[in-house]
Design brief:
The protein has 18 helices and 48 strands. By secondary structure, it is an alpha+beta fold. Strands 20, 21, 25, 26, 27, 28, 31, 32, 33 and 34 form a ten-stranded mixed beta sheet that branches. A seven-stranded antiparallel beta sheet has the order 35-40-41-42-48-44-45. Strands 2, 4, 5, 6, 8 and 9 form a six-stranded mixed beta sheet that branches. Helix 5 runs parallel beside helix 8 and helix 8 packs antiparallel against helix 10 (638-658). Bound molecules: beta-D-glucopyranose. Beta-D-glucopyranose binds next to helix 4.
Length: 976
Amino acid sequence: MSATELYDLRTECACDPLGIGVRQPRLSWKMRAGRRGARQVAYRLRAAPDVAALSRPGAPHWDTGTIESPRSGQHPYEGPALQSRQRCYWQVRIWDETGSPSAWSAPSWFEAGLFDATDWQADWIEAGWSERADAPRPAPYLRRSFELSVPVAKARIYATAQGLYELHLNGERVGDAVLTPGFSSYAHRLQVQTYDVTALLRPGANALGAVLGDGWFRGRTGASGARNRWGTRVALLLQLEIECADGSRVVVCSDRVWRSATGPILSSDLRDGEVYDAQRAQQGWSEASFDDRDWKPVAVANHDRGRLVASAGPLARRREEFPPKRILRTPAGQTVVDFGQNLSGWVRIRVRGPAGTRLEMTHGEALDGEGNFDLAHLGALGMPPPGQRDVYILRGDGEVETWEPRFTTHGFQYVHVAGYPGDLTGDAITAIAVYSDMRETGSFSCSDERLDQLHRNVVWSMKSNFCEIPTDCPQRERSGWTGDVQVFAATGSFLMETGGVLTKWLADLAAEQRPDGCVPNVVPDTLTSGSRLARLATWVNGSAGWGDAAVLVPWTLYRVFEDRRVLETQYESMKSWVGFAERRARRRHWTKWLRRPREHDAYVWDTGFHFGEWLEPENGTVAALVRVMASSVLFSRPSVATGYFALSTGLLARIAAILGRDRDAARYSALSQRIREAYQREFVGPDGRLRPDTQAEYVRALAFDLVPPSMRPRLVERLVERVHAAGDHLGTGFLATPFLCTVLADERELEIAYRILLQTDWPSWLDSVEKGATTIWESWRGIDDDGNPHLSLNHCSKGAIASFLHEVVAGLRLDPVVPGWRRFLVEPRPGGGITRARAAIDSPYGLIASDWRIESGIFALHVVAPPNTTARVVLPTSNPEEVRESGRALAAADRVAKVGVRNGRVTAELASGVYRFECPICVQGASSTPGPLPQRAGETPVPGTPLAPGDRSERFRSRRLRMDSPHSRVQEETMS
Ligand code: BGC
């Protein structure tokens, strides 16, 4: 038997994290074993201040002894209380299913940052001159030099800023993160980064330098592009702590000794871009030998330190580079570079030319119908589009100059270059994608290249919209719209390790929640904060489906990563949101003032402003959006709001039960039942139709379980009718699109689900793919048939369709009960002419995969279940005797148990391991949808799932699976 190996030791979400702010970080590991059935039955953890002490008898300061437990993740460190700056090494060993111990893992470590405000000796420092508040301002350069008399043993910088900072030490850039200290709810939480700078220091003269950018803090943000949301002065707080080889300690802080000057960055703004005059660069400005006598003394400021928190999520970094795909001359005579990929980031240029030459690079997502560079579609509701223009003014010393901006990002595929001296060639310009450095975990591919492209587009919209916070789009508003996060969080958490970014963002959400529980529609609030004018718009906050992110996002993190702590930390925020909805629902809408109150009125949320379904196909223009908003102001969106009210309340009941808060669980469970009943009385007509009679409403009612089982068939029937009426096209918008195809598939309408998925004309996902999209569009209209762009071309939300690809096409799905991939389902449901599909995720337990193909009528499925997981497989045949696993009859297969047939399909339980199943595919014709799917050359059509219509037990099973969709958080939840 092969030995078990332990790998990928993690503290919180990270490997060997420096500067953590959690006093009891959670420890996790993965197991590797080349056999089936591998699992952990016990573990032992130990920790020590240095590696050698880990194995010295009696030396570890924490040793759990052997603990019987199958859990390999999220073990809180319970050693002696962690102090600021303390590093802790740890390792683990486990006992496997045979009782054999593994070897001790390789050591891992974590190091604490500064926990308390009192750890700081540094002063906040600012530029030593006054600045205008109403215009772009030059970036302050700050520096100081200092002496060290002895060699350095260990050195750390703790740093943050109001605005953005970039640090230099002895002429070297410190770290490789960009846009630090990141974006958070600055009034409440300001992130601090920790750097190991031991190797950059030397005995003798040293120098520290910092450049400050406007960033989110005082640059233009949000839909209105207002400046100075959090303040007018950028400032630095920095503490360099040095342990010298002789045991002495030196601390160099930001303080009044520092000097300041303007430099080459004439202005920097996230929306408008950066202007850099290379003629003003001061060579060696962060080196000790630099003469800073011309520089001004800095101003010392007294900004709050109580809001300092350690940086939790992964930092933003430069992640990928793209050479130009083509360089065009447009009909209007513009030189435009097409990178072939829409992304968020910036470009690096190489240029040689006369001093003072002004080179302008304007970034956009699309060309217009005539083929000219176009930004007009990025104006939000009549606002001017963001500038997205970087300017580089050449030094002109005869050498090649290489430059890229540092305090801006742009959403772009095209760059309009003006003023380039000579011919612009492909090697002169490179696009750089910049986003939070999350681990990429999920993947998908199949036999239909169009779906593969669609999936790549989803991934790129995610990469473009997870830079420090999850955003709606990377070019226009760049805002933490709560609804956008809510609809995409589950899909995104399959594709990447989102735990760090989303947990941090949830802390911002809780910090910005109003005392009455109302959640701002945008977090951090760049919509209704800052100016008095902006504050007038606070009445739009608390939109249902947006504010529900307060409950749905923590729930997703729990489901996907088994993160129970986030449920605990966000619990009050969730309760407070549901309390807000409850009180709002009790208010009477003006249209009901003259009516006698009915008992269920108090549970129908029919007051306040809600975006509603938002951006259904027919509402894809600015004029339509204005109309939709005006009607919401007058009439609210009661069915949407009541649906989300029921969903969030029901989930809160389950969360309360998970956390052992039984009284809350009972209260919210009863409340959610009342809301469901009220929904039925208010929105289900006597003919079984919903009001409004739209695809979205049926999808929501089915996905959120808003109606009793007896009503479901009628709703499904009507949903299918609505889809047919739309020519078998989707008719959903922002909120219901993520569920549409999965709900249909789970309700035995697989064929129609595939038909919607594979439509290629408007409105559909593949319309965008066929028009060459490389990201997901905000509006179904995106680029019209004349080639003109509409709204943003890079929004994650409709990319939630990727979950259908993972869960239904490839068949990989979270178990409805057990969180965190500890147990999962493999149930591919082939259709749409697809002959092979594969989805895989690097789960908290290691690689999980479902990989199937159909050849000559044989369905072959390859399943990977890592140690410590179990899976249930469901095969598209009804006869177990026809199934072979690794060449053997199923009954004789190793570690395959409980073989059975349910609802016409073979099911079996798998222990961890690698499995290869084969069976003849059972072709079923019965379906309520008319006509065959269009067949593509050389492919065998594979109709829908083999289910007998009207089978009640199947109906029940379908509901359970439907509830398992990460988009439908309605679960039978238990903690084992
Ligand atoms: C954003 C959306 C957002 C919406 C509110 C838009 O301008 O880009 O993604 O959720 O406003 O409905």
